Amino acid sequence: MGEWIEACGSDDVEEEDVIRFDHAGRVFAIYRSPDDEYFATDGLCTHEHVSLADGLVMDEIIECPKHNGRFNYKTGEAKGAPVCVNLRTYRVKVEGGAVFVEV
Q1: Which of 6, 14, 33, 68 has its CB 3.0 to 4.6 Å from that of 37, i.e. a possible disulfide?
Q2: Which has the closest alpha carbon to 73: 92, 88, 60, 63?
Q3: How, if at all, do strands 98-102 and 92-95 pair?
Q4: Does 101 have pLDDT greater than 90?
Q5: Is the pLDDT assigned to residue 16 strictly greater than 90?
Q6: How far apart (Å, rounded) are the C-alpha atoms in residues 82 and 39?
Q7: What is the 3-state secondary structure (H, E, C) of the chain?
Q8: d(C-alpha 77, C-alpha 80), whole Å
Q9: Which domains can be identified in the chain, with CATH numbers?
Q10: pLDDT at 93
Q11: Which value, to the nearest 10 degrees, does the dihedral of the CA atoms of residues 58, 67, 22, 73 take?
Q12: How many Cβ atoms from other residues are within 10 Å of residue 62's Cβ?
């Protein structure tokens, strides 16, 4: 079991959007789905280590801003070239208006 870390407020992430969260020298991405659920992945693209927080979120896909590689942010699965390595995903919970990530 990992440690639960407060990443942001639940209102800090707009629906169908992503924000960056840095903790202990690592970069994470926090997403809010159209269904008002929260998800977390590694925050850097597996292709060229660009911050995914600058990317475009559509449904359950995050598109990297550099080369348009796509990932399913719910599963971490690489969905479009040039990315071929999946993102690591993390468990998320919302309590008292805050989003927590298990790291």
Answers
A1: 33
A2: 60
A3: antiparallel
A4: yes
A5: yes
A6: 23
A7: CCCEEEEEEHHHCCCCEEEEEEECCEEEEEEECCCCCEEEEECECCCCCCEHHHCEEECCEEECCCCCCEEECCCCCEEECCCCCCCCEECEEEECCEEEEEC
A8: 9
A9: 4-102 (2.102.10.10)
A10: 98
A11: 30
A12: 26
Overall residue count recorded for the chain in this entry: 103
- What is the value of pTM for the model shown? 0.94
Question: How remote is the C-alpha of 38 from its chain's centroid?
Answer: 9
Single-letter amino acid, residue 15: E
As a whole number, mean pLDDT of residues 67-88 equals: 95
